[in-house]
Specification:
Length: 725
């Protein structure tokens, strides 16, 4: 077996690799194709963005389903040729992926005994075309794919039998072996990388037998490929009894199919805890193995696991001790908020150094889902459009570098990274993670570390930022006007000196739009002068600054939704104060972030149109004179706050529009709220008004979810407040 799998040996610096989420799976009659749904790598310039991160290698999809979609003799490499050439010109080593959770093109069948031979023929064609590629992943995560397709029934062929899983896994491993034999006829030095999720399963004593079974099962793909499945192996008799011919197992015994490198795809969900006490978890659907019903839980959420060997370093050590084959972490991704993604990547990077210090030969860490992933929170089973960003946010006209991409690149260059969010533990280390919190743990204690300063303690947005920052593990200081008066430069300077925040979010403002014309001086003093003075002070102190503007900087007569580049045209004093604030803030701090939003409503206070409508409906009050010609884009406060924090962490600047996707009139909004809260929409009476449309769109791409989903959340979460009204 070659000893130099990647450049240098384990004593060389840990390398940063990259990868794009590219699963192709069949769910019922529908094919989910991550690469195409998200239009990843549509532009050749996307390759340049990848290269700018400094990655050494990339797991790149040359997928069978794409190239041979119409038949084995009709291969279309037109999409791949320029992209692979661009990667090669950047000196990035390509790890070729041929099947990623898929079952092959529609003309193939993974149940067909010829499936491995067909994949091998395709692999040979790829190798001939790109003879310079040395690293190969013929079938991604064979055990995980076999489980999801044939044991749990998530993906085609949707079976739920252990026998089907064992047969499918054997076929996948045969396909891996056959593909590598074919590739090596072209390039004898080609190297095989086998990736999978090798997470450990823990349990209560009663479920120890099930945990032991699953802990052996996770190795089965590697055990087959390394020739370990022989008489005496825990699965030898089982596989034969379930229909795997003995000769098929013996074909692996020469070890020729052993990988040159093992890829650990490790997630926070990889380590599990099986608990027979199902009544403790009423919201968890239990599993059933025919002997016991049990809850299958994330181990990090169980108090008993707090002192157990969890984490990437422990799993790497397990694999190294069992196989002695060099390792990479094949996927690092976290479908969560931006700072938690960064914390997870930084932790895995540290864990790899810890494993290397313990003698484990770890070569690289793969920044996975560089352009994000869609609907992976439901394993692609539901088409919800739920997008999680990666190293780049893919939702705009071009990929936008995120915090996790920046931190990963800096770690890959060997830099010491000191970002305020990394001083906090990830949610998987905080007491609130536990499903059953242990006694003595305070879940709402102040978080240590440098704080984010949020002005506007009495307002809806300020309270929402304080709540969500605590949930996200971001220490935040919410200031009153007595602590920081935005209209007083002396007060601003004193507060910044005293509190020393790492960023400032200004939610303070004159918000009573109906009084703005009568109190114009006060409105301009707070909204325009105050925001500019705070921006100037932050610029001097080198502190990132965020403030909020409004759709009312527009007069609503454009005839379409407004985007960031449209000229402002305010009509009333409130809109003029916000338009002036934008100009003053950007003049004082060109790197400030200004969020324009519209008609926001939230579940935690009563001071918004949506809450008022539902409360009045509950009381039986008449609801008249709701404008039916003024079109807006209502914005759900939790979505607005989360997106603003992400943009701040990504160091975005300039003006950005944030509103939920979907424009409608005030009257239509009231009727939607009535219907969703169980009331008759016909109780909402319209009032004629001059037509206007101040709805917001963004040239940077949609950042917030559709309004329908946000309204459902609002009605559900605001019910306790409405019942008190």
């Amino acid at each position: 077996m070659p000893s130099a799998i990647v450049e240098g040996a384990a004593s060389s610096p840990l390398q940063l690799w990259g990868g794009v989420e590219c699963s192709v799976v069949r769910v019922g009659d529908e094919v989910r194709d991550e690469l195409r749904e998200m239009r990843q790598l549509d532009r050749l310039e996307d390759i340049d963005a990848i290269a700018a991160l400094g990655i050494k290698a990339i797991r790149f999809p040359i997928l069978w389903e794409h190239v041979a979609a119409t038949g084995p003799n009709s291969l279309d490499f037109s999409w791949h040729d320029p992209r692979l050439a661009r990667l090669r010109s950047h000196g990035i080593r390509v790890v070729a992926g041929l099947v990623h959770h898929g079952s092959g093109p529609a003309w193939s069948n993974p149940d067909d005994p010829l499936w491995p031979t067909q994949l091998a023929a395709y692999a040979a064609a790829v190798a001939r075309r790109y003879s310079w590629i040395e690293d190969w992943v013929p079938v991604n995560e064979p055990v995980t794919t076999a489980r999801f397709t044939n044991l749990y029934g998530h993906w085609y062929p949707h079976r739920r039998r252990m026998s089907a899983m064992l047969l499918a896994l054997t076929t996948e491993c045969e396909a891996i072996a056959a593909a590598m034999r074919a590739v090596r006829t072209v390039n004898p030095a080609a190297r095989l990388i086998v990736t999978d999720d090798y997470g450990h399963v823990f349990s209560t004593d009663i479920m120890a037998y099930q945990a032991a079974h699953e802990n052996e099962r996770r190795w089965l793909g590697l055990d087959l490929l390394t020739g370990r499945v022989r008489k005496g192996h825990p699965f030898w008799e089982w596989m034969i009894q379930d229909g795997v011919a003995q000769a098929r197992l013996e074909a692996f015994h020469d070890g020729a199919a052993a990988p040159n490198l093992i890829g650990l795809d490790h997630y926070l969900t990889s380590e599990r805890f099986l608990d027979h006490r199902t009544s403790l978890y009423p919201d968890i659907i239990p599993g059933d193995n025919g002997r016991h019903r049990y809850a299958d839980l994330e181990a990090v959420r169980i108090p008993e696991m707090a002192d157990q060997p969890l984490g990437t370093a422990d799993r790497l050590a397990e694999i190294w001790a069992r196989y002695g084959i060099p390792l990479v972490v094949g996927e690092v991704h976290h479908g969560c908020t931006r700072e938690e993604q960064a914390r997870w990547f930084a932790e895995v990077w540290r864990e790899c150094h810890k494993a290397r210090a313990g003698g484990v030969d770890v070569r690289a860490v793969t920044l996975w889902a560089m352009f994000g992933a869609i609907d992976w929170r439901s394993l692609l089973l539901r088409k919800e459009g739920h997008y999680d960003a990666g190293a780049f946010d893919q939702r705009g006209p071009e990929p936008r570098l995120t915090l996790v991409g920046d931190i990963a690149a800096r770690l890959g260059r060997g830099e010491q990274v000191d970002h305020p969010v990394l001083a906090q533990p990830g949610w998987w280390h905080r007491p609130a993670r536990f499903l059953l919190p242990p006694q003595g743990h305070a879940l709402n204690d102040p978080l240590p570390g440098r704080e984010l300063l949020v002005t506007g303690a009495t307002g809806t947005l300020g309270h929402a930022f304080a709540r969500i920052c605590h949930h996200r593990g971001l220490p935040a200081r919410l200031t009153t006007r007595a602590e920081l008066d935005v209209t007083d430069p002396t007060s601003i300077a004193a507060a910044l000196e005293r509190l020393r925040p790492w960023a400032v979010i200004n939610t303070a403002g004159f918000v009573r739009t109906w009084e703005a014309d009568a109190r114009a001086d006060e409105c301009f003093s707070i909204n325009s002068l105050g925001a500019a003075q705070l921006a100037k002070a932050c610029r001097i102190a080198g502190i990132p600054f965020v403030t909020f503007s409004s759709d009312l900087v527009f007069d609503g007569q454009l005839g379409r939704a407004y985007v960031e580049g449209d000229a402002t045209s305010p009509q009333g004093a409130y809109g003029r104060s916000k338009a002036e604030a934008e100009a003053r803030v950007l003049a004082a701090d060109p790197d400030a972030l200004i969020i324009r939003t519209s008609a926001f409503f939230g579940p935690w206070d009563r001071h918004n149109f949506a809450f008022d409508i539902i409360a009045r409906l509950r009381r039986g009050d008449p609801i008249d004179n709701v404008a039916d010609a003024a079109v807006i884009t209502p914005t759900y406060v939790p979505d607005l706050v989360h997106a603003t924090l992400d943009l701040l962490l990504d160091r975005e600047t300039g003006i950005r529009h944030l509103a939920n996707e979907g424009a409608l009139s005030w009257h239509e909004l009231a009727r939607e709220l009535a219907a969703r809260s169980g009331h008759d929409p016909r109780r909402i009476n319209a009032a004629p008004a001059a037509p206007s449309n101040t709805s917001l769109d963004s040239r940077h791409g949609v950042a917030l979810r559709p309004l329908d989903s946000a309204l459902d959340d609002f009605v559900r979460h605001s019910r306790p407040l409405a019942e008190l009204a």
